[in-house]
Amino acid sequence: MENLENSTDCKETVSPLNNSGSILNSTVSHHDGKAMGFVLVHAGAGYHSESKAKEYKHVCKRACQRAVDRLRAGGLALEAVTAALIELEDSPFTNAGTGSNLNLSGEIECDASIMDGKSLNYGAVGALSGIKNPVLVARRLLSETQKGKLSAGRIPPCFLVGKGAEQWAISHGIPACPTEKMTTKFSLSGYKRNKRKMELAEQVETKRKRQSCGHENDFGCLEPVGDIMVEGEENNSACLDTVGAVVVDRDGNVAAAVSSGGLAMKHPGRVGQAAHYGCGCWAENARDVSLYSTAVSTSGSGEHLIRTMLARECSTAMQAENAHQALLEAMQNKFISSPFLAGEDCVLGGVIVLRCCTCGEAQRSEDIQALLVEFLWSHTTESMCVGYMSAQDSKPRTHISRLPPGAVAGQSLAIEGGVCRLGTVSD
């Protein structure tokens, strides 16, 4: 990637990558005044059917545009990443906010978190019902922590769950939204289908137990019922886990956010990685010129991501010289082959990552503001839908990344990304 650092714009390049069959592409940014910043979003790591590809790409485009609109209006990274997440949560095609998976009780319980790389403050909600945009509650929690202590010296919360989170949100001016208004025909039909599969599985298991305790009969051995989850079925992409975004603004501040409706048919009260610190998202500004600012958002099997704290692990890895190689090794060593997941034969997850630093000429001149942004995504799931855009681009770009032919989901990975130089000349 070093060959792009001294260019005046991002050049189109193609480089082969190891272990994936994927390629590394750069994006082109055009200089048009003082607009600066970059956003990378994802609509989940899981399975994206070809029939729904257009819808997933479209929502990623809208999320990118929302974030860039905020950046062009002078908004900071935290504002832009929130705007992107609201768009992703509002789409009925994503498993976040509206259209979220239903739990065992037929209710929607959402997780979300957000992190500001400048202040390192963090806000999160888990198993939250009755709020249309969980990211707004996470963002408000983050903002309230920045105000200092509460009355009588109490420390303000940064992470709330369940009914307490809902009550806190409403008391802070975030309107309630009934579950039925957030439920879609697609999520409801998936719930009914999965519930029937569960009931059938329980009937088979009960019959098996009775046979094992009594005499052998004419039924013989019963075949086990397949998984109740809808992963991999052509018309059932609702198994996708989280959505998320990472942003860098014109001042080089980074922010990250993530939101999820969680696993289909999860137990009420289950909190996934989207709410856990260091697991769902991470953002950290560079503390000196020798370091990179980094932002990460994850998706996939929440329990796998929690046990590996993948967001923070990937952020730490990004301080290495070669971003692509660092992410490749982090996904392989800290996730697929992690000792914390020993015994798991199918490790499912995905990440989007950006890192940035001030370009060399900007360090030498006060008249030039320039950022070198490297952005990557990687996944062990069958596919991952991403979108990206700089504040200097005319339109977003989207892509559904897929594992190469013959690769086994949960045991292989794909990795792609690019480099973009953002810069303006000050007045």
From TrEMBL:
One of its GO terms (biological process) is proteolysis. The active site is at residue 242. The record marks 241-242 as: Cleavage. SUPFAM superfamilies: N-terminal nucleophile aminohydrolases (Ntn hydrolases) (SSF56235). CDD domains: Taspase1_like. GO terms for molecular function: threonine-type endopeptidase activity. The keyword NADP does not apply. Gene3D superfamilies: (Glycosyl)asparaginase (3.60.20.30). Keywords: Hydrolase, Protease, Zymogen. GO terms for cellular component: cytosol. InterPro entries: Ntn_hydrolases_N (IPR029055), Peptidase_T2 (IPR000246), Taspase1 (IPR037464). Belongs to the Ntn-hydrolase family. Intramolecular proteolysis generates 2 subunits, alpha and beta, which reassemble through a non-covalent association to form the fully active enzyme. This is Threonine aspartase 1.
